[in-house]
Backbone:
């Protein structure tokens, strides 16, 4: 075999090349791998098929081989110089061999492909087979399950059937029992009833036999019949009259009921008639405008027929025979059909109208939507406008925030200040006014006081005058002064006067202190009325005391009246001084 | 056009209901004004358009109190005494003394005689109003007595003996006595036709039900026929006296209608295998036959085909939108009303008893129902009482498992008109014999009145414990006799027209 391989290799480098070209890339490696050692082997001379020495043997061998293959065996050129290789047939043979080889390769390839395909199909088939097997298994299992359930159900059916049977039997039994019981009961009942009857009869018999004396009626005197008639003998005639009476009442009852029925019938007929008339009335005016001028005559004809039919039926109504009723019914049915058709038509018409209306409504809806759209746009525009305005404003603000705004703000501040000042001013004014008012009050009070004082002085002058005129002059001044204390103003005794004068002197300082020390901040500015009054009182007190003292002096010196204005003025001066003092005090302290 | 009409109709209905509402509101506090008519009687006004005067109370026993058929006299039994009063003055006209405590009392049809039966003694005494000296005593002897009644002519007395052995017919004209054998002991085995000429009697002969029709004039047996009943329970003449309705016992729903001459006119059966007929009532016009049954339904048959026209059900929940549901609401008296405070001690009892009034309920309304015990005989279920108003316009019913409710049906509209629900179970309800006006009582001290215009409850202003157990209308419909346990009181209702006349 090794030899064969060698020959093959040596024989065709060409073929290897061809194989290189023709064979598919998948096979390329394999072929290359196996071609390479071949080519290598071809160089090893030792194992070569043909050598210089055995050319002839080789040729003969090849010849034989070719012959065995069925090719022309004319490699051997039996020329005279011995057998040699005949080139042309050899080449032909080689070519033929190559062809054969190619063909076999081709078939091999095909077969391989085929094999591949078949193997794949086989695989597929195997898979499907397995799947089918699984399915089979499953269905088999299911089948068995179903078989099982069927068996169970059948079992159940069997049991149920048996149950039913027993139940049926039970029912039958019970029914038979019931029926037997019922029959027994009815039988018993009858028996009992009979017995009872027998007993009753026996009882009544016994009662009759006993000739119960107690059963009796005891009436003072018999009454007349309620109808005043005498009772009559029972005769066949009477029975007959009862019969006739009974039939009379029955008859009268039937008559009344018949009358009622007739009345009812008449009413119903009237209603029917009216209905019919109305139906005709409803139907006729619709026809005239609906039908064309051409169809008018025929229409009228129809109407006329109808009316006539109605009339006949009306006439027939009174006859109230079978035929008339039929006619009436027919006409009514006809009318009714017409009416129904009419109503259906009306319905359709109304439906159409509704649709039309709905269509009409669609248009305003659209316009409405348009309007809405327009308005929306407008709103959008307005919004944009506003936004731009805002932006502009902002920009402006941003740009003009430096100098102008500062000035502007300053102006604002000054304005504010002014406002505040104005307010304060107003407050001040008010306070001033208050003060003025208080002062006026004060002066008024002072004036009043002055007047009072003047009156007093006058009084005193008069009194003194009197005293003077009455008594001896200058005898007892002291007594006089004491008696003076009984007058309107208290006039103290001498030590008192002295004391008061001291007090007055002492009290002068508290006035000033009150004005100056306690609440310097407030009272200094605007003394309250209370303080003022207090001050005034104190002043007046002091003044009184001082006056007293003065008076005393005046009394001593002279009792002139021309000092009143002086006093007044002095008071006024005092008040003026006081205010001045306070101010001054304040300023001093 | 159609819808318009419908709307107006609905509006009309609405107005109607409103009207009744306003009426109620207006007249609820309307127990107003005081007036003395007789003794301590109080004038009241209600929405039935009338003033109400109450008489003082009188004693009575066994609820034996009856107005004479002519409406002039009032007979009451107090123990063994029979007192006859003038109905207008209530002055005692006659006083009779019976031999024992009276167990039954009845006026004769001509208002001349009064029958007093003493069942325990088997005695019947008859008194004459015109001749106080006249007397009559019937002794049934040892056979006993279970029932006694006048014949329609007022000259015969029918006594049923114990065990229903026989019916003894005593004639006061001739002292004659005749017997009718085999009367059947059942719910209503004897009935006289309205004009008093015929008597139908249920009999049991040879274990079969049969009916005998007698001419009341001379007790001539006019017809005798067997009926197709298992166990006949009752029979009733139609008001026109031409049809006899016969019904089977409750075990079977079967109503048979016989003509005066004994022909079977029709048979009606609503269902099988269940408890059947409980009550039967003719309308005064003889037009309808109302059948109340254990299935809580009333079936109305017509008088022409004797088929069912309509069936009225009594559901526990009322959802019918057209019916008015009046519910009695109790309230403690908070303020002393003026007219009461005027009246001192006699009013004390009413002052401290509970006041009640009707309120209109909005639908749906649940009516309290009692579940009957199925194991007991005569279960408290089904329509047991039916009553047509005198004009046949309304039908009042009572369903036994809803004992506090009275149902009023309109026979023209064939629908439910009103439901009156009370706090206690209704003892008795009766129609005014002249007007569509229903009076009822529930065993307390109140009288309830319904009319199409509205509904009112009136406290009976009498001293002491007065519980109205039952009531009876005077035949002219102007007064009601209220029966307590031991007392009675008359309630006069001056109708509006009379009021106007007086004014």
Residues:
């Amino acid at each position: 075999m090794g030899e064969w391989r060698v020959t093959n290799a040596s024989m065709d480098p060409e073929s290897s090349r061809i194989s290189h070209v023709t064979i598919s890339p998948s096979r390329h490696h394999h072929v290359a791998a196996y071609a390479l050692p071949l080519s290598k082997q071809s160089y090893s001379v030792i194992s070569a098929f043909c050598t210089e020495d055995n050319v002839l043997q080789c040729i003969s061998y090849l010849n034989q081989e070719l012959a065995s293959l069925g090719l022309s065996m004319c490699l051997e050129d039996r020329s005279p110089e011995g057998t040699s290789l005949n080139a042309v047939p050899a080449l032909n043979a080689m070519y033929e061999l190559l062809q054969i080889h190619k063909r076999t390769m081709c078939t091999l390839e095909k077969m391989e492909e085929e094999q591949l395909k078949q193997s794949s199909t086989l695989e597929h088939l195997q898979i499907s087979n397995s799947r089918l097997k699984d399915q089979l298994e499953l269905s088999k299992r299911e089948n068995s399950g179903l078989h099982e359930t069927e068996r169970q159900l059948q079992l159940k059916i069997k049991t149920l059937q048996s149950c039913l049977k027993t139940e049926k039997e039970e029912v039958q039994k019970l029914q038979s029992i019931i029926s037997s019981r019922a029959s027994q009961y009815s039988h018993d009942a009858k028996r009992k009833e009979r017995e009872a009857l027998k007993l009753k009869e026996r009882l009544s018999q016994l009662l009759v036999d006993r000739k119960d004396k107690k059963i009796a009626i005891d009436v003072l005197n018999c009454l007349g019949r309620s109808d005043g008639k005498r009772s009559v003998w029972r005769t066949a005639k009477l029975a007959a009259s009862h019969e006739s009476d009974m039939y009379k009442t029955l008859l009268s009852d039937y008559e009344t009921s018949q009358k009622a029925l007739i009345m009812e019938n008449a009413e119903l007929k009237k209603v029917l008639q009216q209905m019919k008339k109305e139906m005709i009335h409803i139907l006729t005016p619709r026809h005239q405008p609906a039908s064309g001028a051409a169809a008018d005559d025929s229409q009228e004809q129809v109407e006329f027929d109808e009316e006539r039919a109605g009339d006949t039926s009306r006439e027939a109504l009174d006859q109230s025979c079978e035929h008339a009723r039929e006619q009436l019914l027919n006409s009514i049915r006809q009318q009714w059909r017409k009416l129904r058709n009419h109503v259906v038509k009306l319905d359709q018409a109304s439906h159409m109208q509704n649709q039309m209306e709905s269509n009409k409504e669609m248009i305003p809806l659209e316009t409405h939507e348009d309007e809405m759209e327009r308005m929306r746009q407008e709103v959008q525009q307005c919004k944009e406008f506003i936004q731009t305005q805002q932006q502009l404003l902002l920009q402006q603000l941003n740009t003009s925030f430096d100098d102008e705004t500062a000035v502007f703000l300053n102006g604002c501040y000054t304005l504010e200040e002014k406002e505040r000042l104005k307010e304060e001013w107003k407050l001040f004014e008010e306070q001033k006014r208050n003060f003025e008012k208080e002062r006026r009050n004060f002066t008024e009070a002072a004036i009043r006081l002055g007047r009072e004082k003047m009156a007093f002085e006058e009084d005193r002058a008069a009194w003194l005058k009197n005293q003077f005129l009455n008594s001896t002059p200058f005898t007892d001044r002291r007594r006089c002064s004491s008696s003076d204390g009984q007058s309107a103003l208290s006039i103290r005794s001498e030590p008192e006067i002295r004391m008061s004068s001291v007090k007055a002197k002492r009290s002068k300082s508290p006035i000033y202190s009150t004005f100056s020390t306690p609440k310097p901040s407030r009272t200094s500015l605007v003394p309250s009325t209370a303080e003022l009054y207090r001050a005034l009182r104190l002043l007046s007190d002091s003044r009184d005391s001082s006056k007293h003292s003065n008076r005393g002096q005046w009394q001593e010196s002279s009792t002139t009246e021309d000092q009143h204005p002086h006093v007044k003025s002095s008071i006024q001066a005092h008040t003026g001084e006081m205010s001045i003092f306070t101010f001054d005090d304040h300023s001093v302290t | 056009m159609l819808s318009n009409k419908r709307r107006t109709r609905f509006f009309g209905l609405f107005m109607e209901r409103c009207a009744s509402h306003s009426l109620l509101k207006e007249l609820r506090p309307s127990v107003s004004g005081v007036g003395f008519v007789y003794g301590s009687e109080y004038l009241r006004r209600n929405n039935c358009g009338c003033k109400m005067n109450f008489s003082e109370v009188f004693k009575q026993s066994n609820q034996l109190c009856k107005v004479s058929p002519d409406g002039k006299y009032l007979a009451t039994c107090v123990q063994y005494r029979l007192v006859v009063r003038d109905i207008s003055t209530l002055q005692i006209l006659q006083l009779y003394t019976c031999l024992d405590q009276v167990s039954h009392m009845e006026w004769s049809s001509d208002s001349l005689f009064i029958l007093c039966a003493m069942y325990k003694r088997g005695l019947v005494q008859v008194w004459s109003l015109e001749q106080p000296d006249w007397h009559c005593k019937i002794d049934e002897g040892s056979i006993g007595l279970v029932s006694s009644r006048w014949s329609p002519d007022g000259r015969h007395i029918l006594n049923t003996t114990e065990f229903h052995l026989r019916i003894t017919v005593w004639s006061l004209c001739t002292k004659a006595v005749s017997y009718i054998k085999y009367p059947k002991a059942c719910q209503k085995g004897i009935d006289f036709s309205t004009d008093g000429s015929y008597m139908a009697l249920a009999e049991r002969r040879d274990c079969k039900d049969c009916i005998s029709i007698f001419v009341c004039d001379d007790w001539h047996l006019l017809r005798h026929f067997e009926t197709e009943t298992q166990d006949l329970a009752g029979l009733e003449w139609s008001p026109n006296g031409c049809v006899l309705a016969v019904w089977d016992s409750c075990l079977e729903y079967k109503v048979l209608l016989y003509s005066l001459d004994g022909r079977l006119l029709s048979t009606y059966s609503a269902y099988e295998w269940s408890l059947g007929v409980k009550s039967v009532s003719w309308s005064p016009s003889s037009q309808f036959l109302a059948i109340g049954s254990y299935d809580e339904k009333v079936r109305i048959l017509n008088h022409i085909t004797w088929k069912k026209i309509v069936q009225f059900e009594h559901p526990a929940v009322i959802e019918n939108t057209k019916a008015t549901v009046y519910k009695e609401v109790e309230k403690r008296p908070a303020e002393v009303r003026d007219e009461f405070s005027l009246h001192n001690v006699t009013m004390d009892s009413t002052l401290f008893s509970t006041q009640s009034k009707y309120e209109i309920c909005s639908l749906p309304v649940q009516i309290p129902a009692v579940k009957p015990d199925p194991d007991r005989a005569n279960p408290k279920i089904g329509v047991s009482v039916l009553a047509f108003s005198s004009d046949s316009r309304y039908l009042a019913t009572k369903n036994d498992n809803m004992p506090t409710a009275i149902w009023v049906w309109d026979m023209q509209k064939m629908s439910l008109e009103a439901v009156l629900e009370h706090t206690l179970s209704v003892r008795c309800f009766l129609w005014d014999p002249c007007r569509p006006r229903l009076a009822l009582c529930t065993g307390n001290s109140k009288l309830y009145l319904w009319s199409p215009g509205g509904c009112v409850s009136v406290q009976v202003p009498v001293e002491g414990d007065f519980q109205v157990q039952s009531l009876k209308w005077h035949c002219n419909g102007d007064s009601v006799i209220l029966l307590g346990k031991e007392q009675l009181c008359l309630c006069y209702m001056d109708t509006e027209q009379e009021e106007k006349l007086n004014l």
